[in-house]
Amino acid sequence: MATNPYAHLAYYERLVLQIKAQVVQGVLLPGDKLPSVREMAKQEQLNPNTIAKAYKQLEADGVIYVEPGRGSFIAEPLRQANTKDIAAFRPKFDALVVEAQSLGISIPILQAWLNEKEGQA
Fold first, then answer.
1. Plot region of 71 (φ>0 → left; ψ -120 to 50 → alpha; else → beta)
2. Strands 71-74 and 64-67: what pairing?
3. Dihedrals phi, psi of 69, to nearest 5 degrees
4. Residue ranges of the HTH gntR-type domain (predicted)?
5. Tens digit of each residue's pLDDT (9 = 90 or more) over 20-78
6. b/e for 10-31, b at 16 or more Cβ within 10 A?
7. What mean pLDDT is reported for the chain?
């Protein structure tokens, strides 16, 4: 039985990751319009406040931009990470590696997954 690796996340966090993944995979391209909050809430069967929270997070992360009266759009590709971004992300990555190892997932498996993701980008 497969388990959902995102089950521990709040619904808005799941939506943020889903949209970010679609951007990285090229499913969503710069300039693409996202559904309105109400439309997305209906599609995802979530409360509109949850969608609005996800959109606010995506905007804060630079993944989307909002044009009042027009909607939310996918932003241009994300900039290259700077040293501040890398330093902020490193503890999260380290925690993820520790969690994976506690579940019996080895470093070579993690490396293979990263290589696989790199090939998809």
1. left
2. antiparallel
3. 85, -15
4. 9-77
5. 989 888 899 999 999 999 999 999 999 999 999 999 999 998 899 999 999 999 998 76
6. ebbebbbeebbeebeeeebeee
7. 87
pLDDT at 4 over 70: no
Which residue has 């959109």 as its token pair?
55
CB 12 within 8 A of CB 59: no
Distance in angstroms (rounded) separating the CA atoms of residues 42 and 36: 10
**CB-based contact 25:32 (threshold 8 Å):** no
Q: Which residues contact 89 (CB under 8 A, 6 or more apart)?
A: 81
Structure token pair of residue 57: 């997070």
pLDDT of 117 above 80: no
DSSP bridge pairs for 66 = 72
